[in-house]
Design brief:
The chain is an alpha+beta fold. It has helices at about 55-70, 105-110, 140-150, 160-180, 230, 240-260, 280-290, 305-315, 335-340, 360, 365, 380-390, 395-425, and strands spanning about 10-15, 20-25, 30-35, 40, 45-50, 75-80, 85-90, 90-95, 95-105, 120-130, 140, 150, 155, 185-195, 205, 215-220, 265-270, 295-300, 320-330, 345-350, 375. α1 packs parallel to α6. It comes from Cyclopterus lumpus.
Length: about 425
């Protein structure tokens, strides 16, 4: 990448097996996360230098955090600073590794004899491990975590916070799982950590997510694994073996950049019967934009100009771009039924109902002749969400925004309930 601007790097705040954390005196609330060329296994019982690993790991984790942030997941990541370092929000780390598993393998099989390798967890299997190198990071129960009564950056870690981290881990895994599937890779399992942002007192995804953090099996085939397990499995560490490990890490860092690229194009075309419906349509466009979906507004009346309505329809059918039409027509809705009867693309009715005749007008969107399949959604935001769910079937970036939105809605309700309960005590 281009030469990084100079940073006033202060004292070292912490050092782990593969990274160092430095204070940034000129940017309160931020730190520099510097990766190292070291690779370890078994709580550093085995450790080696791997030239170039710092840059590879930094590229990987920066791409992963960009993907998650663009989806709407709250993370500590701010920006990539250099080939080997990124800037992050300063956090007090919660000393728990959250492990999420889709496929049974590795240590899970040792701790659960009788389970066959390859057993698929649906729903995902969640585990947590207390970060304690001296005791080999023992597995903890939720009850142990609550009994520890951690307090970090002024935030007490109680049931609500544990629930938020649990639910967030599942969402993060599912977003990365869906993304890796576009590269024909199975995300087998993953470990992540959370911290409390010292400025906002929010729980955010922190630390790093790189090729040390997961198991990746191309085509679901363990023999093709590309993650750190290859290093763990080495009977003898030789220069040739380390080159194989490095090539795997480089392969992942290149593929992970592709996860940020859209795999399919699509758009929403909103047809309004009159410009008097513009404010209603703008709400649809705004919501579509939040999901990363282009939205085009057009004016046409199926009653007054059916030939023009069908010409506009043909215009968007003719360029092979996946399209969802949204029909916005008050009074008697002719747009939705006419469009649905003349296109194989999805059509959503979103009538702008008025208090006076709304209860009667809505029937023109609900009672359809046979052979028509348009849906009716009254809320403009919900109409955009339904269109996004259609595109999300083939576009992992849209799906990821939907998944993160579900998580954020759940978290906001959880925190609102916690605040209300605190006020009631």
């Amino acid at each position: 990448m281009a030469a990084a601007p100079e940073l006033n790097v202060g004292q070292k705040l912490n050092e782990g097996k593969t990274k160092q954390i430095f204070e940034l005196p000129d940017q309160p609330g931020l730190v520099l996360v510097q990766s190292m060329d070291q690779i370890t296994a078994g709580n550093a019982v085995r450790k080696d230098q791997m030239e170039g690993k710092a840059a590879i790991a930094n590229r990987t984790t920066s791409s992963v955090f960009k993907l998650l942030q663009e989806s709407g997941i709250k993370t500590a990541f701010v920006k990539q600073h250099s080939d080997t370092a990124f800037v992050a929000a300063r956090c007090e780390m919660i000393p728990i590794e959250w492990v999420c598993r889709r496929v049974a393998t590795g240590s899970f099989l040792k701790r659960n004899p009788g389970v066959k390798e390859g057993y698929r967890f649906s729903p995902l299997k969640m585990e947590m491990f207390f970060k304690d190198d001296a005791n080999n990071d023992p597995q903890w129960s939720e009850e142990q975590l609550l009994a520890a009564k951690f307090s970090l950056a002024g935030l007490a870690i109680g049931q609500c916070e544990v629930d938020v981290m649990n639910r967030s881990t599942v969402a993060i895994f599912e977003i990365l799982e869906k993304s890796w599937a576009t590269q024909s890779c199975t995300l087998v399992d993953m470990k992540i950590e959370f911290g409390v942002n010292v400025t906002t007192q929010e729980i955010v995804l922190a630390d790093v997510i790189d090729n040390d953090s997961w198991r990746l099996w191309p085509a679901g085939d363990r023999s093709q694994q590309k993650d750190k397990q290859v290093y763990r499995d080495l009977k003898e560490v030789t220069p040739e073996a380390m080159q194989v490990v490095k090539r795997n890490f480089e392969w992942v860092s290149e593929r992970v950049k592709l996860l940020l690229e859209r795999q399919a194009s699509g758009r929403v075309v909103v047809l309004m019967g009159s410009t008097s419906d513009l404010a209603h349509c703008e709400k649809i466009r705004k919501a579509c934009t939040s999901y990363g979906i282009p939205c085009i507004l057009r004016v046409t009346s199926a009653h007054k100009g059916p030939d023009e309505t069908l010409r506009i329809k043909a215009e968007y059918e003719g360029d092979s771009v996946s399209t969802v039409f949204v029909a916005v027509a008050g009074r008697s809705n002719g747009l939705g039924p006419v469009m649905s009867g003349n296109t194989a693309y999805p059509v959503i009715n979103c009538p702008p109902l008025t208090p006076d005749w709304g209860a009667q007008d809505v029937w023109s969107s609900l009672r359809m002749p046979s052979g028509l399949g348009c849906s009716t959604i009254l809320s403009p935001e919900a109409a955009a969400q339904f269109a996004a769910q259609i595109f999300g079937l083939t576009d992992h970036l849209v799906w990821s925004r939907l998944r993160a939105s579900m998580l954020n809605t759940w978290v906001s309700l959880k925190l609102a309930d916690q605040k209300l309960q605190a006020c009631s005590l």
